[in-house]
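Troubleshooting: if your tokenizer reports a length mismatch, compare your output against this known-good record of 159 residues.
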Amino acid sequence: MSTNAPRGRKPRRVEPRRPVANAITQLLVDHNELQQMFTAFENTRSVNNKRFLVQRICTTVVVHARLKEEIFYPAVKAVLPQAAPQHETIKALVAHIQSLEPVAEHVDAPIQVLAQEINEHVSDLHDTLFPHVKASDIDLVELGDRMARRKAELIAQHA
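Known-good structure output:
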């Protein structure tokens, strides 16, 4: 019996490359994950769960905003010059939340405000920006590939 693997080692299995979701799909997945985290935060009484969720929500929002500012909006601006990120309020809320002790009751209200701001922002994107981007000639798969690579880098930095 002959194998290509060195003696005593199993042959390395090469996984097929997963197709990269297009840019809009990636943003939608982030939006859904954030919604789930906000719901989990609202439904938990556990101090440890709240602490974990606050950290995860803040990291997800920061990474998501950076992806849009660094990659998505510059690509979209070529087609829609009026498109610009509106993240100032959201980033200020995240900074405020990160400055609070996440187990204290006073983190609940800012998280609720952040959830509301993000829901309004997402609604606006779904109603106005995304339909125009989908109708454009932007290569959303290539854009999604760049976003996925950058997201992995940003998440590694926050780990």
